[in-house]
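so the lab meeting is tmrw and i was supposed to have these ready like two days ago... anyway. pasting both below. for each one the top line is the aa sequence and the line under it is the structure tokens. i havent really looked at them closely yet so no promises
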Amino acid sequence: MSCTIRTRKFMTNRLLQRKQFIIDVLHPGLANVSKADLKEKLSKMYSAPDTTCISLFGFRTHFGGGKSSGFGLIYDNIAATKKFEPKHRQIRLGLADKTQKSRKQIKERKNRSKKVRGTKKNK
């Protein structure tokens, strides 16, 4: 596997305790590169505390292949990851469990709450 990683628009966001950047991956001859492999390389490049602190998302392969671009976040620690990362990305990283709720239950609850419009809604 020969892929080259370049980061651009790199910025340290002290407020959200993370480094954020756009990641360009050059992978000629390969369809794409797995996020796990990219996390390994990024943790070595930026000396991240753990691979679970790295969040990669939004990858798009450029027309013709050979190059992909996405967004990357490296949090300072796991506590910051749990605090600031959205729930769906925490589930992907394995930091949170997905709650199983049926679609019908969600819709019924929504419609019940619509009936009490104007009064205080309770959960």
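ok protien two:
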Amino acid sequence: REAAYSYFDHGITFLPKKHWEEYYSLSLELFDLAAKCALTKGDFDSLTVLTEEVTTKTHDFKDKLNVMYLSVCALSISFRLPEAVRKGLHILSKLDIGLHLEKVNPEASAKVTKDLLA
């Protein structure tokens, strides 16, 4: 995990200043893979930095989905389930996946999940 993260991190450092404009696909791939490695090694600070970069620099919402998913996973792993549920619901709404959000209570959903996992 550490070696893989280091590999992608080094790849990112070798990108030129305007890499999002000049090497969009490569930049997205490197940042996505580095974010995935950061999650697997529990480096939530790096995951946050990578996620912020991708969400501010990408052109299309679908290009943001992978890092957004990883950030929801990080919230879940950190036992921040209400936040994870809220963020997940926000992502689903952006994808036009209709849910009756007025009926969803993130805190209640988190309690049910905790009870099931206990």
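from a quick look at the 2nd one: The chain has a mean pLDDT of 87. The radius of gyration is 16 Å. will dig more after coffe
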